[in-house]
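stage 2 :: seqdesign
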């Protein structure tokens, strides 16, 4: 017997090429796929249908760069400059255990599902524990075990070679993709990046790393290699791998860098709330957009962001870039929604995501629009970008399966997760006493 769900009486922000918004429509979902979209007035049999009056449907959001268990240090290293913040976080993280990661990642999954995120690109330690959370939650994810290669005792948990078996163990998982994860070209020695590239070639993977977050990192790269970070990585072959490479942030790119990033289809997650909170100067996205770079959106870790609400990221991205470029016409229409869905889904390796259409996987969210801050609806897309908050998401579905119904999690035990994650996070920061590595070495 097929597994059928029929949603009726909703407006659909399809995000198709024509920017179609279907009004009072119904969506039939069978065996995880959208099989029919039709006018609710033509509904013949209401039996077993779910009335969604007052709600809209849109493709679920994709968080293209995060460190989900860093909610452990949410609010712990506040009001610090970037380098001091990073080193303070590393001390706290020196005491984490695999179980801490499991509960923190569960907390993050609960937060993401409750704010409309259906998939995420996560980079942290003890990723085997995060893989368990992905499987239990029903979300989709790309996972990267972060490694540093800065010498003995600088890794958390496994080093590069020890993670290979874990990567191989997930080879056939339908909802999880993996990357090779050197932290960054500014921390990892060149030889270590080369080793990562060789392993990526061998395992048919891409890399997920941090690139050019500050001007100082660009200067450091020119001093060391006589090349800017993007050109240095390109010269090593980091963008010529069997799978795509995710170069998180890449805020400081010159014209040549942009050409390389565009030509090699590098995916660039942009996380402006972190940049603003840590007061990291960054240029407008305008040049990158003009160069057709694939920019997606992420929250970064909740140690810096400090939450994982992608609707906040969407709104803040619009605001900061209109402000920085002194041009209110940029990032117009549904551009940001596409960055937060279709482009982001490329980091997860998802097929056919980003449009609500027949044949696509039913990875969607419902938003309750009956709220004072969402009326009137002169422009539905503008209301989503500027007014919707994660807490307005009422229902979250992945592959046709409900992960949340009417604000209640269906796959995770929220009460237990809140209790365990909170208790453990308080212990973690007290346990962490070691400075595992320094920013400059
Ligand atoms: Zn990051």
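stage 2 :: out
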């Amino acid at each position: 017997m097929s597994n059928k769900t029929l949603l009726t009486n909703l407006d659909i922000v399809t995000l198709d090429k024509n920017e179609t918004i279907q009004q009072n429509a119904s969506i039939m979902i069978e065996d995880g796929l959208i099989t029919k979209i039709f006018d609710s007035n033509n509904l013949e049999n209401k039996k077993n249908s779910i009335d969604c009056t007052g709600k809209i449907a849109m493709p679920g959001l994709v968080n293209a760069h995060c460190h989900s268990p860093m909610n452990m240090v949410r609010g712990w290293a506040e009001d610090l400059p970037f380098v001091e913040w990073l080193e303070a976080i590393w001390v706290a993280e020196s005491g984490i255990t695999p179980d801490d990661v499991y509960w923190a990642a569960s907390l993050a999954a609960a937060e993401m599902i409750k704010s409309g995120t259906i998939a995420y690109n996560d980079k942290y330690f003890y990723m085997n524990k995060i893989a368990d959370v992905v499987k239990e939650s029903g979300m989709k994810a790309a996972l990267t075990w972060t490694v540093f290669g800065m010498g003995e005792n600088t890794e958390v948990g496994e080093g590069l070679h020890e993670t290979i078996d874990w990567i191989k163990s997930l080879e056939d998982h339908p909802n999880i993709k993996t990357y090779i994860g050197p932290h960054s070209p500014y921390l990892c020695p060149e030889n270590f990046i080369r080793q990562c590239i060789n392993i990526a070639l061998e395992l048919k993977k891409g890399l997920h790393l941090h690139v050019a977050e500050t001007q100082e990192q660009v200067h450091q790269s020119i001093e060391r290699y006589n090349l800017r970070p993007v050109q240095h990585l390109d010269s090593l072959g980091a963008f010529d791998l069997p799978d795509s490479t995710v170069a998180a942030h890449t805020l400081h790119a010159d014209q040549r860098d942009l050409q390389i990033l565009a030509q090699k289809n590098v995916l660039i997650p942009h996380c402006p709330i972190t940049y603003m909170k840590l007061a990291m100067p960054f240029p407008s996205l305008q040049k990158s957009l003009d160069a057709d770079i694939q920019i997606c959106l992420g929250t970064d870790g909740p140690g810096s962001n400090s939450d994982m609400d992608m609707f906040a990221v969407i709104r803040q991205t619009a605001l900061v870039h209109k402000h920085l470029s002194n041009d209110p016409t940029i990032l117009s229409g549904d551009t940001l929604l596409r960055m937060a869905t279709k482009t982001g889904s490329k980091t997860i390796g998802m097929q056919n995501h980003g449009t609500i259409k027949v044949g696509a996987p039913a990875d969607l969210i419902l938003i309750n629009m009956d709220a004072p801050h969402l009326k009137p609806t002169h422009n539905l897309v503008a209301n989503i970008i500027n007014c919707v908050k994660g807490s307005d998401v009422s229902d979250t579905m992945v592959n046709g399966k409900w992960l949340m119904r009417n604000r209640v999690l269906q796959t995770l035990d929220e009460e237990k997760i809140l209790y365990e994650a909170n208790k453990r996070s308080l212990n973690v920061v007290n346990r962490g006493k070691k400075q595992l590595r320094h920013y400059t070495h």
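stage 3 :: structure notes
- The first helix runs from residue 82 to 93.
- The pocket of zinc ion is lined by residues 65, 67, 210, 248, 300 (CB under 6 Å).
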